[in-house]
């Protein structure tokens, strides 16, 4: 005997939490993983069955845990629609919103570096960035007390200069949104109608008018406005969501569900639509609603014979026969096949005070729809089962076809006045950093809306965690260390100021090459003694050294010189290069830098660069010996090495432990003592741990004879060994 999809998938699921199967959290995780495996394969039956079985077997976590099922529905929906249903780019022009694709009114640059109009962000239409899929809302897509949206000063100034009319239109839209938010729908409707008399081609005004009509409960007129917008821009996700909300408020939950899916098929990150689908599915798939739905459908529906499947005796079996069938043409019939609830299309449309024309326009096959506008009716409606038929997979397909002639001119209609910029309005001074007074290079925008070169801003934050212009605190911005390039501004510079950008890049390359030289103008950290092969951890907090470390990392050399201070010359004549192994940045801009000693050097000429010392240097190497001298050198090397081991082993445990924690273990004796230009590593390790004056250590560091260095170390060990014997 064949088993239902629900029974098949349900057998793979873990037992109910609290039973013999283990903790409830692990069971929920396994159910979620199972659903996730079904999405890539587009196995809708099994995904619905898994969700239903989870609801029956144990708590599934409510609407928040149905996201995977929604993804599966959207994927099936998109596959049934076939290719050619791409995202609408919206109006063409240099200042275009990443979200809605329309004019970038009141631009706001988000942390990832992409720019949206204020309207898209204020309405929280997306949880993720449409370009890079970075989170726009806090991780998980739930809104909290978000930071205020600050207009990008530079981009807004460009918009005002290039397209003042569009900016005024955007401000008028903001005023309309305020009226709608405050519930002043009559005032909003009057303002919209007045604006439409001046410009009837503005589709955004029709959306605002539809929202006003919804607030006044004039649903039919709202639907007419939204249908007009769909005919002009059939791939605008927000319009489908708005229309779905109108139908949902009117009691047509099934049709609303299809429109929400159409919205998500065009933009899978459209957050409000996803939340609404999750709520609908959570309510419809709950065991309580499902049982009532099954009983009502079996005894009361006069059209049970027309269902694409037969209701089974089990709850799980009945609901998992829900499927998306191959799409078929809806045809041109005005009155479609009757569906659940005994209503045909014309009858359902009549509930919105519409006639046959509205039935043609909305292009929807009624699914579990009842014209119940009262609260009691809405509650009863949710008890009905949503059944997907073959027409459901092509939501608005016929509506779009009916508007095809109008849609053919969509591109032409939506090429607005901001498509091109007059050449005399492009001024390089509009793209200059207020800190360096040069053309923006890698422009970044702070949360307060000001834009600077990335390097310029970092240097300012080295001194104080606040905006250089408005002095607003940037502590969180500094702690995140996410200085994303403002992509739109960079694109504008590349397009309209290509020659100036080429020159700016050339200057930057020259500066980088200057910082990359390891013999001329080498950056100097004046602090402590450093030795070849010996670790040297540093706590960097001074602004000048923050800049120095950052430049060393950016140029790729990851090296700088270390010297001790000198009262006469500023820093000593000899030092050691340090190689950066790792940098750990602290939230306030300080850093802990893990370095290790490299080559020794002698200072030839001193200098200064942006507050830190520089020097022209030459590197030091030990003079090699041979024959008899090499034999004597090996004997001295072995004797001093054994003496060093004896001294270290006789130290108190406390001191020995501290040395091992800071410097690590003593290096082993080397067979070829002249293999490295700086000699054996253990000599430098021992010199670093011996408690002697830094000036004495510096004299040993500067020696180019291994023999002389071993003799110096021998004298020190002899002195300390006598103290140990006492």
From TrEMBL:
<protein>
    <submittedName>
        <fullName>LONF1 protein</fullName>
    </submittedName>
</protein>
<keyword id="KW-0863">Zinc-finger</keyword>
<dbReference type="GO" id="GO:0005737">
    <property type="term" value="C:cytoplasm"/>
</dbReference>
<dbReference type="InterPro" id="IPR046336">
    <property type="entry name" value="Lon_prtase_N_sf"/>
</dbReference>
<dbReference type="GO" id="GO:0008270">
    <property type="term" value="F:zinc ion binding"/>
</dbReference>
<keyword id="KW-0862">Zinc</keyword>
<feature type="domain" description="Lon N-terminal">
    <location>
        <begin position="512"/>
        <end position="721"/>
    </location>
</feature>
<dbReference type="InterPro" id="IPR011990">
    <property type="entry name" value="TPR-like_helical_dom_sf"/>
</dbReference>
<dbReference type="GO" id="GO:0061630">
    <property type="term" value="F:ubiquitin protein ligase activity"/>
</dbReference>
<dbReference type="InterPro" id="IPR017907">
    <property type="entry name" value="Znf_RING_CS"/>
</dbReference>
<keyword id="KW-0479">Metal-binding</keyword>
<dbReference type="InterPro" id="IPR027370">
    <property type="entry name" value="Znf-RING_euk"/>
</dbReference>
<dbReference type="Pfam" id="PF13923">
    <property type="entry name" value="zf-C3HC4_2"/>
</dbReference>
<feature type="domain" description="RING-type">
    <location>
        <begin position="97"/>
        <end position="133"/>
    </location>
</feature>
<feature type="region of interest" description="Disordered">
    <location>
        <begin position="1"/>
        <end position="29"/>
    </location>
</feature>
<dbReference type="InterPro" id="IPR001841">
    <property type="entry name" value="Znf_RING"/>
</dbReference>
<feature type="domain" description="RING-type">
    <location>
        <begin position="433"/>
        <end position="471"/>
    </location>
</feature>
<dbReference type="InterPro" id="IPR003111">
    <property type="entry name" value="Lon_prtase_N"/>
</dbReference>
<dbReference type="Pfam" id="PF13445">
    <property type="entry name" value="zf-RING_UBOX"/>
</dbReference>
<dbReference type="InterPro" id="IPR015947">
    <property type="entry name" value="PUA-like_sf"/>
</dbReference>
<dbReference type="Pfam" id="PF02190">
    <property type="entry name" value="LON_substr_bdg"/>
</dbReference>
<dbReference type="InterPro" id="IPR013083">
    <property type="entry name" value="Znf_RING/FYVE/PHD"/>
</dbReference>
